[in-house]
Amino acid sequence: MQVEEKKIGKLVILTFLERRIDAILVSDFKAKLSEVIENGNNLIALDFSEVEFIDSSGLGAIVSCYKIIGKSGLIVICNLKDVVFNMFQLTRMDRVFKVYTSNEEAINELS
To answer: Is 41 helix (H, G, I), strand (E, B) or coil?
Structure first.
């Protein structure tokens, strides 16, 4: 799985460069996110600007990492395409995770 990692202050932005986050890539996706958390990062923005599809296994991986980070940190979502945002709304994940329209919006609010 191709991922760009960028750190701005305490915020880590992970940009996923895959078009799909599904059962095929979910273990790599979860491993990368878990690695970032285990390295002591507790403020994470997931940039989905390149992602055109996410299935329930991808959403489950995000929730699993959300549980790992617990109350000591925060995971937010950025740059959702309409189809992916609809999946977040359908599963009510937009109520669990703060969703930003851009990385800049997340940076401004979280810095």
So the answer is: coil
3-state secondary structure of 12: strand
Local structure of residue 102 (DSSP, 8 states)? S
Which CATH number among 3.30.470.20, 3.40.640.10, 3.30.750.24, 1.10.540.10 corresponds to the domain 3-110? Answer: 3.30.750.24
Q: pLDDT tens track of the chain, all 111 residues?
A: 899 999 999 999 999 999 999 999 999 999 999 999 999 999 999 999 999 999 999 999 999 999 999 888 999 999 999 999 999 999 999 999 999 999 999 999 997
Burial track 79-89 (b if 16+ CB lie within 10 A, e otherwise): bbeeebbebbe
Instruction: State how far the Cα of 53 lies from the Cα of 46, in Å rounded to an integer.
Output: 14
Encoding tokens for residue 61?
A: 């991986």
- Residue 65 corresponds to which tokens in the numbers above? 């990492």
Q: Which two tokens stand for residue 45?
A: 């923005």
